[in-house]
Design goal:
The chain is an all-alpha fold. 63% of the residues lie in helices and 0% in strands. Helix 3 packs parallel to helix 8 and helix 7 crosses helix 8.
Length: 408
């Protein structure tokens, strides 16, 4: 490591002010601080509360995402291998076997047995990793460009955005749409407002919302969730919108939904993986347990109310709260998206209101408007818009109470 440190020190002078590569200093600084602690650090302890900083926060979020990343690869491969096993040697399976991913699987000799962890991981990785690489390359390019133009440091926040966005996508998403979506999320969702810390919308969700409305055929329907060409399979939520509880249970049981062995966005299917991530975020103080709890509370309350009311025309009324919590991207949204410290409420009271609002909106969109069977993405973006307003009124109420106590 000393050799690398010496190499960085020797080349650092070329990026200093007035030197030939001065404009690229943010790129050098990003690489240097990614590998080592910065040379300039704060001394003294009069205003230091702990050792946490932005780099450590983003690193902890990535660590918390590891179970979801594992499920993104394993479940994508599992669903594809299961479909191939069910289809046999003909039809959709034969058409898919000509793809480059299946050629790689054949070369490695891992097979297509859905009971094999290795076979599922390898095939799933061949779908997930290209999406991740394209996302990081395209989004990272915009981050570097804006940092160079503004003469700012490259922020580590994109490491999390670049990981969250691929996890929200189906395995068959075209790679050019991945690049376009993350470009929209980074530029329009964040950089136009001044960069990390100044955006009021979650960039990863902004990117997904753009793709959702711009290219609905590639991110909705029943032909994009299982990575086998020509094979169609609706997500449990989509089945629920058509046939209610019978449509859901006809595909999976509750425990399967909790574990995440169902079609869906690559990293969002497993509530268990999200709970493991939530434990990391809450124990380290990075994620707000209040927002997670409030979002769950809001969803449970409205889902149970609608379940008891019932409907003779809307099948989604048949799903009680226990199903809403494990289906779709609810758990992923509650743990990783709604708790974004930049776009969420920051006051404790505001976090409860913000979380309940998102939970209620999620169930409302899912049940009352089944044209959007997921609902979590739109609900969180809706909550992002209202978060500053919520915090404003909470702070004003606190000021009034203090003034009243002072006057008394």
């Amino acid at each position: 490591m000393k050799l690398l440190r010496d190499l960085l020190d020797r080349t650092g002078g070329f990026f200093a002010a007035g030197k030939p590569l001065a404009k690229l200093h943010p790129v050098y600084e990003a690489l240097d601080t990614f590998l080592y602690s910065p040379d300039t650090v704060t001394s003294g302890s009069t205003h230091v509360r702990d050792q946490i900083d932005l780099k450590r926060i983003m690193g902890l979020v990535v660590v918390a995402l590891i179970p979801c990343i594992y499920m993104a690869m394993w479940n994508t491969g599992y669903q594809a291998n299961l479909a191939l096993a069910q289809a046999g040697a003909g039809g959709a399976a034969a058409g898919s076997a000509t793809g480059w991913r299946y050629a790689v699987v054949a070369f490695l000799g891992v097979g297509h047995d859905p009971a094999s962890i290795l076979a599922n991981l390898v095939l799933g990785a061949l779908y997930f990793l290209p999406v991740y690489v394209v996302c990081m390359a395209a989004g990272g390019l915009w981050e570097v460009l804006f940092a160079v133009v503004r003469k700012h440091e490259i922020n580590e926040g994109f490491l999390v955005t670049g990981m969250l966005f691929p996890l929200t996508l189906p395995p068959l998403i075209p790679l050019w749409q991945v690049a376009l979506g993350i470009s929209f999320g980074v530029v329009i969702g964040k950089e136009v407002f001044g960069g990390t810390g100044r955006n009021f919308l979650n960039p990863a969700l902004t990117a997904r919302a753009f793709l959702y409305f711009a290219y609905p055929a590639e991110i909705t329907g029943d032909a994009v969730w299982v990575a086998v060409d020509g094979y169609t399979f609706a997500t449990p939520l989509a089945a629920g919108a058509l046939e209610g509880l019978q449509g859901v249970t006809g595909q999976i049981g509750w425990m399967e939904a909790f574990m995440g062995t169902m079609p869906g966005s690559m990293g969002e299917t497993s509530a268990l993986a999200c709970l493991l991530g939530a434990a990391v975020l809450v124990l380290t103080g990075v994620g707000s347990w209040r927002i997670m709890a409030a979002m769950s509370l809001g969803a449970v309350a409205l889902a149970q109310l609608l379940f008891f009311v019932g409907s003779g025309t809307n099948p989604m009324f048949e799903l009680d709260a226990t199903w809403h919590l494990v289906l779709g991207g609810f758990a992923f949204g509650a743990v990783f998206m709604a708790t974004d410290p930049v776009s969420a409420s920051i006051t404790h009271t505001g976090q409860w209101i913000y979380g309940i609002l998102i939970g209620v909106m999620t169930v409302l969109i899912r049940v009352v408007n089944p044209a959007f069977p997921e609902g979590v993405m739109l609900a969180i973006l809706f909550g992002n818009v209202f978060a500053p307003v919520i915090d404003h009124f909470v702070i004003q109420a606190n000021i009034k109470r203090r003034l009243a106590r002072t006057a008394a």
